[in-house]
Design a protein that fits this description.
Blueprint: H1 2-12, E1 14-17, H2 28-32, E2 36-39, E3 41-44, H3 54-58, E4 62-65, H4 75-87, E5 93-97, H5 107-115, E6 121-125, H6 131-141, E7 147-151, H7 157-169, E8 175-177, H8 184-195, E9 203-205, H9 212-224, E10 233-235, H10 243-262
Parallel strand pairs: 1-2, 3-4, 4-5, 5-6, 6-7, 7-8, 8-9, 9-10
Helix pairs in contact: 4-5, 5-6, 6-7, 7-8, 8-9, 9-10
């Protein structure tokens, strides 16, 4: 009996905690008293992305590949990452930061991502402008990824066209964040055309892309041609889109969602275009 109590006391000194649990409103002092804290997230760079860490990384739910200048990343690092992606059964979110974004251009990493069935969210932040080509290939091959975030990657109108082509083929993506890039009117037109063919996308965020009212009207025209779609939310903040165009986009999105829900779907509720005015 005494030995059993000792075992129970040992277990009570440990706690499993992830990103959803580590919150400011949690009992910080309670967590601090625990003997062991096991994280389901991993932050790695060129120093820690090693072959002897593959099995450990493959067990994580979230992996964040940080910027690493000294030492710099090499093809060997991306070979190791590709092995992690191929062997994982638990990884849900993979994030790349700055110079690490170039990883998706590695053939082995891109191929592993395209074939992976566990990763739901891919994040590229402040990276290279050519990343959209690799992302497009990944989206064409992957049928389970639901969220892609491409923050501040200097994506141009031509880059947006490449992503738009992937959207026409992809059937799993639900949220696309491409804020703070440079897609302009040309990119907005390409994305608009993709919206007419994509049936899975629920939320689109293209704030801060200098699409102007012309780009907003391209999106409006696309929505007017759509009879059935999953689209719920289109964020156009900081694009100088007029309030009139925004209102009309809201109206068209509401029409599409009413038809979508009326067809028997019980999925999410319409939130439509962000109402923040910027022009």
């Amino acid at each position: 009996m005494l030995e059993g109590r000792r075992c129970l006391a040992s277990l009570e000194r440990s706690i499993m905690i992830g990103a959803n649990d580590l919150r400011i409103d949690n009992d910080v002092f309670k967590l601090a008293k625990k003997k062991d804290v096991f994280y389901d997230s991993a932050y790695t760079d060129a120093k820690t992305l090693r072959r002897d860490n593959v099995a450990k990384l493959a067990k994580k739910k979230d992996i964040y590949i940080k910027s690493s200048v000294s030492p710099a990343y090499t093809d060997e690092h991306w070979d190791i990452l590709a092995e992690v992606i191929r062997t994982t059964t638990s990884l849900k979110k993979l994030c790349f930061e700055k110079d690490a974004v170039i990883a998706v251009q590695n053939d082995k990493v891109a191929d592993a991502l395209a074939k992976n069935c566990t990763i739901k969210e891919l994040v590229l932040r402040e990276g290279c402008s050519d990343a959209e080509k690799a992302v497009s290939a990944i989206l064409k091959g992957n049928s389970t990824m639901e969220i892609v975030k491409l923050y501040n990657n200097n994506i141009s109108g031509e880059g947006a066209k490449v992503i738009a082509e992937a959207l026409k083929e992809n059937t799993s993506l639900q949220k696309l964040f491409s804020s703070s890039n440079c897609i302009g009117v040309e990119g907005a037109k390409a994305i608009s055309d993709a919206l007419k063919e994509n049936a899975s996308l629920r939320e689109l965020f293209i704030g801060g892309n200098n699409i102007g009212d012309e780009g907003g009207k391209d999106i409006l025209n696309a929505l007017q041609q759509i009879e059935r779609s999953a689209i719920e939310n289109i964020d156009l903040d900081w694009n100088q889109v007029s309030s009139r165009t925004r209102r009309r986009i809201n109206q068209e999105a509401a029409r599409i969602q009413n038809r979508f829900k009326g067809s028997g779907s019980s999925e999410g509720q319409l939130t439509a275009v962000s109402t923040t005015e910027d022009g």
